[in-house]
Write a structure and sequence with these properties.
This is Response regulator. It comes from Viridibacterium curvum. Keywords: Phosphoprotein. By secondary structure, the protein is of the alpha/beta class. It contains five helices and five strands. A five-stranded parallel sheet has the order 2-1-3-4-5, sandwiched between helices. Helix 2 runs parallel beside helix 3. The protein is globular. It starts with a strand and ends with a helix. The relative contact order is 0.19.
Length: 122
Amino acid sequence: MSKTILIVDDSFSLRQTLAIALREAGYTVQEAVDGKDGLAKLDGTKYNLIISDVNMPNMDGISFVKAAKQLPNYKFTPVIMLTTESDPAKMQAGKDAGVRAWVLKPFQPPALLDAVSKLVMN
């Protein structure tokens, strides 16, 4: 059975690029347009990994991760932040919220897939 990854990003083109790379690597992909939409997708569906942007309208990535980690089904789901944000304070806030990896955009699909394969939950 393939692993399912939730992508939370307000950029349609980025979600498309990421989804293609992940699907080609054999993953099943769900997409959300911002943190609020991402939370709505955390409805009991089993996700093996979440990839989220930091800067999004309605609910930013760090708030989304904090909220996701409050849900029993997603408390241990690994999260990768894929972002243009390189501010150490933001990175620390992400880590404190439960983010496991921080990948800067523009990303290289092989490097991202490497991080995904290391963190994806069984």
